[in-house]
Amino acid sequence: MNRRENLKLLFTGSVGTGLLFTGCSPEQQKLPARDLLSGGTIGGRTEEEKQRDKELLSETFFTDDERKKLSVMVDIIMPKDDESPAATELGVVDFMEFIMKDMPHYQTPMRGGLMWLDFEADEKFGKPFNELSEPEVIEIVEEVAWPDSAKPAYKGAVRWFNMLRNLTCSGYFSTPEGWKYMGYVGNTPNAWDGIPQEVMDKHGVKLEEKYIPQYLKPEDRGTIIEWDDDANIIG
Amino acid sequence: MSFQIKNSGEAYDVIIVGSGAGGGMASKILSEAGLSVAVVEAGGDFDPAKEEDRTQLRPPWESPRRGAGTRIRPFGDFDAAIGGWDIDGEPYTRKNGTEFDWFRSRMVGGRTNHWGRISLRFGPNDFKRASIDGLGHDWPIGYDDLKPYYDKVDKLIGVFGTKEGIYNEPDGFFLPPPKPRLHELYMKKGADKVGIPMIPSRLSMLTRPINKDRGVCFFCSQCNRACQVHADFSAGTCLVHPAMKKGKVDLYTHSMVRKVTTDESGKATGVSFVSKVDLKEYKLKSRVVVLGASACESARIMMNSKSKSHPDGIGNSSGMVGRYLHDSTGTDRMAIVPSMMDRERYNEDGVGGLHMYTPWWGDNKKLNFARGYHIEYWGGMGQPAYGTGGSMDSMRKYITDEFGKPSPNGGYGAGLKKDIRKIYGSTMGMSGRGESVPMYDNYCEIDPNTVDKFGIPVLRFNYNWTDQEVNQAKHMHDTFEEILTEAGGILLGSKPGPETKYGLLAPGRIIHEVGTTRMGNDPSTSVLNSNCQAHDCDNLFVVDAGPFVSQADKNPTWTILALAWRTSDYIVSELNKKNI
C-alpha cells in the first residue's frame, strides 16, 4: 500500500463529518472557535431533548434583583485578573439560570441563599444587599467563604456558598477562556505518543522496557495491521 | 434519527430483536450466510459519522448545561447512550426492599455506543467456577469452544493490548497499545511496591486500521460519545450498518417488541411489536427468532410470551428465565497527588479509557471471598466541563504554597482561581470491577401490577448481594488504599465500612447484568442449551448476555460477541440441515 492510500485510509468513514470538512488530516484540524451557546445542546439530540431544552430556555427563574446579587457574588468568586476575565463576562449567571431549571433540586437552596443575603445585609448594615458597598459585601462573604473556620451560626449559609462556588467554577471553566486559563490543550486531534520525556524525568517515572517496542508507533497508523497465526504483528 | 417502518406480511428467515453487541453480531453473520434478516430495535437509528448524530469533539459550551448529565444521558449531555436508568413511560419495579438499577439504551447499537470498550476474554477458569470453588454452576462449554470465536472477533473488530501469557487472561490478536499517561505510571509505581500487576489495557479502539472501512483513533478521549470515524467498536457502526450494506437486512427502528409469537406446536413464528411512531401493533414472521435485547429485556420478552404451549412464557418451562441475574461488583476510591500539582501542560487525552489495568492477581483459596476483580485506573488532565473546580470547600487544603503552608478550604477570588489551576490534573483514582456469585434468588420477573406505556408488563427485580461480594469490596478498598498511598497520593474521602457494604455499588450499577436465560445441559435447571437454543423451543435463540452462566471479573461484551457468532454459525448449520 502506498502513502496516498495510507492517508486515504485515515479518513475512511469520516466522509461528511467535521474532520473531513476542512480537507485536512486530523493532525492539522483546528477546532473552530465557537461562541457561548444561547440555545439548546447541539448534536445528536432526540426530539424530546430538543423540546425540553426549548422549554427550559423559554422559562425564567431568577428575578432581576436575584441576578444582580448573583452577578456581584460570582465576580467575587471568580474575578477578573491579569490572565482571565470575570465570571459575569463569561456568562456564568446565564449558565446558572439554565442549571436552576435543568436541575430543579438547586432551586430552593439557591433562592434561599440569595434571600439570606438580604437578611444578613439588614442585620449587619440595615439595608438590602444590592445597596451594599463593596467592602460591606466582602464582610458578608468572609463570614461564609471559609468552611473550616466559619462561625457555627453561619453553617447553613456556608453550605449555600459552597454550592455557589461550585456552580460558579463549573460555569467559568467550561468556556473557551476557562480552558485557556486552565491550560487545557487536549482535544486537538493528534496521535498520542506518550508523556513528554522531560515530564517523565521530572516525575521520576519511565516506560517499562519490555513494552517500548510494543507501543503504537504513530507512523504505523496508516497501515492495515497483519498478524501471523500466533497473533504476532507482522505488518 | 430517522424512522423506518415497514408493514408486516413479509416473512424473514430470521428476526433479531435488539441491535447491540449480540443482535449486531447475529445480523452480520446470519446475513452473510445469505439469510434474510429483520433487526427490530426499540430506539432510533444512530450513526456518529452523520453530522446530525455527532456529539464527539463538541466543547462543553455547545451544551447549555456544559456537558452535565440529564435523565436520558446520565453519563453526560454528549454521551452517546440514549436512555438511562429511568426512561419515561418505561418503568421497572423492585421487590422486598431490594435494589437493582437497570440501564437501558434505546438506539441502534444500544449501550455499545458509549461503553468503556474494555474487551477482555473470559479465561479457562471463568467457565468452570463451580468446579473450582463449589459455588454456582459450570458453563456447559469451555474456553476452547469460544477461543476460535474470540480470535475472529479480535480480527473483525480490533482490540489493542499486549501478549502476557497469563493463564486466565488469554491473549488475543492485539493492535499496539498506546503509551501510558502520567497518572498511570504513578499508579504503576504504587502497584509495583504492593506487588500487584499492572499491564497495558485491552480496549476495542483502532490504534491501527484493521480494514479499509473504518478510520483510526485520533486520541480525543471521547469514545463514550461514539466515534465519527468509527475507530471504536459500536455494534451499529461495525456490525449492523455493514450488514445492511452487504446483505438482506431490514432494520425496524422505534419498534418495541411485546412478545414472541408461536404456533400450535409451540414453535416460534415471529414477533409482535408496537411501533412507537404510530402506536400500532405489527407482526413479523420468520423461521427463526433471535433475542438480543439485553439480558433483562430478552427475559422480559420471553416471560411475556405466554401461550397454550408455553404457559409460563416461551423458553421458561424450567422456570429459570430471569433467575441467576447477576451484575459485576464495583466500588471506587480516589486520591490527590501533591507531586502532580501545578504540572506541565500537554495534550494527554489519549483514548477514551484507561491505558493500563490490573487483571485479577489473587488466590481466592487464601481469601474470604470466592471470586476476583480487576482494577481500572483514571485521572489526568481531562477536558474542563461541568464539575471542574468543584469541591474546593474540602480539597483546597491539599494545595500548599512555596513555603509548604496549606491553603485554607473554600475561599474566593484570584487566589482560588490559581489554586484550581494548580489542582487540575493532580487527582487520580481507581475502580474495582469484580465477579459476583450467581444466585437463584436474585432475579427479575414480570410485575403483575405494572405495565409500560405500550401496555407491556414490566420487570420487577429482587436482588441481594451475598457476603462473597461484600468481602470482595472490602478487599478492593484495602488494595486501593495501599496502591494509592504507595503511588504518592493522599487518600480523599473516607474508607467505606460495613454499614455501606464497603462502598459496594447497588446491583445493576456496573451495567454488566447477565445470566437471566442461562445455558446448561439440564433442561430443568437452564433455559438454553450449549448453543444458546431454547430447550423448549428449537427455533428460538438468545445472543445477549442472558446465556452467561457466570460473569467472570471481565466486561461481558467480548464474550457476548464471541458467543453470538458461535450461536449464529449454529443457526446457519441447523437451517442447512433442516433441523429447524
TrEMBL record, chain A:
InterPro entries, alphabetized: Gluconate_2DH_su3
Protein name: Gluconate 2-dehydrogenase subunit 3-like protein
Provenance organism: Algoriphagus chordae
From TrEMBL, chain B:
Name assigned to this protein: Choline dehydrogenase-like flavoprotein
Keyword line: FAD, Flavoprotein, Oxidoreductase
Biased composition (Basic and acidic residues): 47-56
Family designation: Belongs to the GMC oxidoreductase family.
InterPro entries found in the cross-reference section: FAD/NAD-bd_sf, GMC_OxRdtase_N, GMC_OxRtase_C, P2Ox-like
Signal peptide range: none
A Pfam match: GMC_oxred_C
Domain of life, per lineage: Bacteria
Residues annotated as domain Glucose-methanol-choline oxidoreductase C-terminal: 446-564
Stretch list, region Disordered: 46-69
One GO MF term attached to the UniProt entry: flavin adenine dinucleotide binding
Cofactor: FAD
Domain Glucose-methanol-choline oxidoreductase N-terminal residues, every copy: 39-327
